[in-house]
Amino acid sequence: MKKTKMLKKNYEFSNVFSRGTYYSGEAIEAFILNNGKNSNYLGLAVSSKAGHAFQRNRIKRLLRENYAYYEENISIGKSIVFLVKKKVNIENIDFYQVKKDMQKILEKSNLLKENI
C-alpha cells in the first residue's frame, strides 16, 4: 500500500476548484484536474458548518479509506478533491454510501483503469 500524496495548500485547492471538472454523487462531490505529474494528489474538504470536529474527521477517514480502496486502479496524473455536499446530514453517512458515490464519480470521469 503506497502513501497517498495530499493537497495541503490553499492555492492547490483553488487551482483544482477553478480549473477542474466537477462530478457529483448523492453525498459527495469531486473536482478532478490533470496535474501533469507522475502521481495522483488527493484533497479532502469538509465544511465546518457540516458538524463538529469529530464528525468532520470521521467523514475524512471514510473518504481516505475509500480512496485507498480504489487508488491502485485510478489513472495517474490527477489531482482529485472530494467534498461532502452541504445539504447531507453527515451523521447518516456510512462507509458503503461513500464507496458507492466514489465509484460512481470515478466511473463518470473515466478514471478507473478497470471495473471493480
Provide structural commentary:
With 116 residues, the protein is an alpha/beta fold. The chain has a single domain (5-108), classed as Ribosomal Protein S5, domain 2, CATH 3.30.230.10. The chain contains three helices and five strands. The chain has a five-stranded mixed beta sheet with strand order 1-4-5-3-2, sandwiched between helices. The two termini are 17 Å apart.
Could you name the key traits of this structure?
five-stranded mixed sheet, 116 residues, 22% strand, alpha/beta, Ribosomal Protein S5, domain 2
Order of helices and strands: EHEEEHEH
Mean pLDDT: 91
CA-based shape = globular
State the name of the first-level CATH class.
Alpha Beta
- Briefly note the structural class of the backbone: alpha/beta
How much helicity do the residues have? Answer: 25-40%
Main sheet overview: 5 strands, mixed
**Into how many domains do the coordinates divide?**
1
Strand content: 15-25%
Low-confidence stretches are none
Ends distance: 17 Å
Subunit arrangement of the protein: single chain
In the CATH classification, which architecture applies? Answer: 2-Layer Sandwich
Rg of Cα set: 13 Å
DSSP, total strands: 5
Task: State the CATH topology.
Answer: Ribosomal Protein S5, domain 2
Number of helices: 3
Instruction: Give the spatial strand order of the biggest sheet.
Output: 1-4-5-3-2
